């Protein structure tokens, strides 16, 4: 039985949260979220930390190739034996996962090979089946501007910067 929501000024802007139509995860408007927890090999946390600076430095390049991620976070926990990850992205689960694997595979392989227990290259035919067992759909999700895609945000920033430039030129 679903709990009744008391309608008031605090719920006036409530977002409609749904499950992804084609996989695990939640969805609000054009944005989805997926999380997961993967086990590490013994000593994997040290390798993860050693590789992380390069992975972080390359994030803008690879995430631009994938093209739909808004936020992406990872952290080690449980005495460095597990890795949690969560990503907020545009659209449906399956197209995101296809882009994640096909456009970002080498990037993720560089971080996770030999670190995550059982990890195979993303190009391996069994990768998605293996990866799917670790995905967590989530219980709560909030998204600022859920109707704005990553491309919409990038465009708005370009327009804003151009407008600011014009204003600066008019003042000089």
Question: What do you see in this structure?
Answer:
This protein is of the alpha+beta class. The protein has helices spanning 44-66, 93-112, 127-132, 150-171; strands at residues 18-19, 26-28, 31-39, 69-77, 82-90, 135-136. It has a single domain, classed as Alpha-Beta Plaits (2-Layer Sandwich). It is built from 4 helices and 6 strands. Strands 1, 2, 3, 4, 5 and 6 form a 6-stranded antiparallel β-sheet that branches. The model has no long low-confidence stretch (mean pLDDT 94).
Salient structural properties:
single chain; about 170 residues; alpha+beta; Alpha-Beta Plaits; six-stranded antiparallel beta sheet; 6 strands; about 40% helix
């Amino acid at each position: 039985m679903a709990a009744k929501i008391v309608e008031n000024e605090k719920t006036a802007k409530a977002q409609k949260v749904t499950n992804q139509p084609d996989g695990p995860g939640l969805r609000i408007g054009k944005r989805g979220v997926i999380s997961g927890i993967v086990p590490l090999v013994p000593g994997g946390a040290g390798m993860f930390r050693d590789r992380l600076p390069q992975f972080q430095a390359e994030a803008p390049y690879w995430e631009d190739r994938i093209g739909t991620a808004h936020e992406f976070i990872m952290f080690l926990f449980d005495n460095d034996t597990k890795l949690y990850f969560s990503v907020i992205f545009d659209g449906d689960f399956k197209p995101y996962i296809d882009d994640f694997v096909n456009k970002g595979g080498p990037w993720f392989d560089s971080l996770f090979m030999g670190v995550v227990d059982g990890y195979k290259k993303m190009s391996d035919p069994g990768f998605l089946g293996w990866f799917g067992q670790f995905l967590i759909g989530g219980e709560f999700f909030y998204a600022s501007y859920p109707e704005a895609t990553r491309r919409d945000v990038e465009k708005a920033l370009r327009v804003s910067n151009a407008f600011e430039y014009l204003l600066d030129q008019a003042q000089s």
